[in-house]
Design brief:
By secondary structure, the protein is an alpha+beta fold. Helix content is 35%, strand content 20%. It is an enzyme of class 3 (hydrolase).
């Protein structure tokens, strides 16, 4: 039979089939529409409407404020302030423009029904991380006013940690602190917290980085800020904070990690600080980076550089990132120095046979209290460990536990740090740890 020609009987059969298909399609469309209406009625759509671009910071998605007012100093757990389980959102923005991805595509994510449906699938995770973020915000708001020169570093850490534990509602590995409180001073950029017996005092001329984390069910907030009391350091602090904001703005789904680093470096190096008659360019500390965050894993595999170059790997939907930047008046490169205080169980380490009974006991204590979250010597002692030095060294030598010594630039220089945790939702970018302070 020539193409395009049909017998009358065949034509009637085809027409009947087409009519049946159209009727079936109408029924499917009606059922989908009804299901969509039911889903909309049962769920809360917290994605901003098309064209909003940005929502008000820390707005509770239920539209209600806290159930009761927080005390001063803060003592009421965050869960009691928001008993309905709807915790304040962070700042909502569009995803950063990516190479090969036009701005229109990023905007369309806001109103895409498919992306909004994906958002709704992860609401339990979003609420957990927002819970941790609110505990972090309220803790640091209190501590920023409380910390004063003349206090010992142990005094500062203990006050911060006890406050954060109360607010997060510490509950074993379900809720608590995600890593030791960093309070690195001056040329020390990161990973310093005082060990027992450390009598270091915070001075008026110190530049101190306060870096601490909270978590709910392993969903970690990693967020840091810099305090200085002498205004001569303000240009350094301002430069690093603006560089962090540039990194946050550049981040987003499909953005290359190296492009975030380039944005950070450009802004940071545009700042200068004058100290004792000498002008210093603010340098990014090139061997310190931001990073992706996973459940109970503070460094989840992807690195966010703060200088140009680096990986061309792209950011993806529903990834968490710590966008952190460090600036220095020194060389812009750090090395291990001073006594070690930070430790963390190796996330990827398989079973390792241990011969020392003391090592087995210490590992059991670490598993019970910290799992794969970071800890410090003070926390081991708080958990009941004593005379553990040899056992800890044995665990480190065997690769079961990794040591993270303080990271320092050249002596005499000054370093600053700012950091936020962001969530790359399918519809938007949520700066989860954003607060009124920074």
């Amino acid at each position: 039979m020539p193409v395009g020609i049909m017998a009358d009987e065949e034509l009637k059969t085809v027409e009947a089939l087409e009519n049946e298909n159209e009727a079936a399609a109408d029924n499917v469309s009606t059922e989908v529409a009804n299901a969509s209406e039911k889903i909309e009625a049962l769920t809360v759509d917290d994605a901003p409407a098309k064209g909003d671009g940005k929502k008000k910071k820390n707005k509770n998605k239920s539209g209600k404020g806290p159930n009761k007012e927080q005390t001063n100093p803060p003592t009421i757990p965050i869960a009691e302030l928001y008993p309905d389980g709807n915790f304040p959102e962070g700042e909502i923005t569009e995803h950063g423009p990516a190479e090969g991805i036009d701005e229109r595509t990023a905007k369309e994510r806001f109103s895409s029904e498919e992306k909004r449906a994906l958002d709704r699938l992860h609401q339990d995770i979003y609420q957990e991380i927002r819970h941790a973020a609110e505990a972090h915000r309220q803790t640091r708001k209190y501590m920023r006013d409380w910390i004063k020169p003349g206090m010992t570093m142990i005094q500062i850490c203990e006050e911060l940690e006890s406050t954060a534990r109360r607010l997060i509602g510490e509950d074993g590995l379900k809720a608590g602190l995600a890593f030791p409180t960093g309070c690195s001073r001056n040329h020390c950029a990161a990973h310093y917290t005082p060990n027992t017996g450390d009598t270091t005092v915070l001075e008026y001329d110190d530049v101190v980085k306060i870096d601490f984390g909270t978590h709910i069910n392993g969903r970690i907030i990693d967020c840091a800020f810099t305090l200085s009391f002498n205004p001569r350091y303000d240009p350094l602090v301002k430069g690093v904070q603006e560089a962090t904001e540039a990194g946050i703005k550049a981040s987003g789904v499909d953005v290359r990690l190296c492009d975030v680093g380039a944005a950070v470096q450009e802004v940071m190096e545009s700042h200068e600080v004058e100290l004792d008659g000498q002008v210093y360019q603010v340098k990014p500390i090139r061997n310190l980076n931001g990073h992706s965050i996973g459940p109970y894993r503070i460094h989840a595999g992807k690195t966010v550089p703060i200088v140009k170059g680096g990986e061309t790997t792209r950011m993806e939907e529903n990834e968490f990132y710590a966008i952190e930047t460090f600036g220095s008046t020194g060389r812009g490169q750090v090395h291990d120095d001073m006594d070690c205080s930070h430790y963390m169980k190796n996330f990827d380490q398989q079973f390792v046979p241990l011969r020392l009974q003391s090592s087995k006991q210490l590992l059991n204590l670490i598993n019970k209290n910290f799992g794969t979250l970071a800890f410090c010597k003070r926390w081991l002692e708080r958990a009941g460990a004593s005379r553990y030095a040899m056992a800890l060294k044995d665990l480190c030598d065997k690769g079961v536990v990794d040591a993270y010594p303080p990271l320092c630039d050249i002596k005499g220089c000054y370093t600053a740090q700012f950091e936020h945790t962001i969530l790359l939702r399918p519809t938007c970018k949520e700066i989860i740890s954003r607060g009124d302070d920074y």
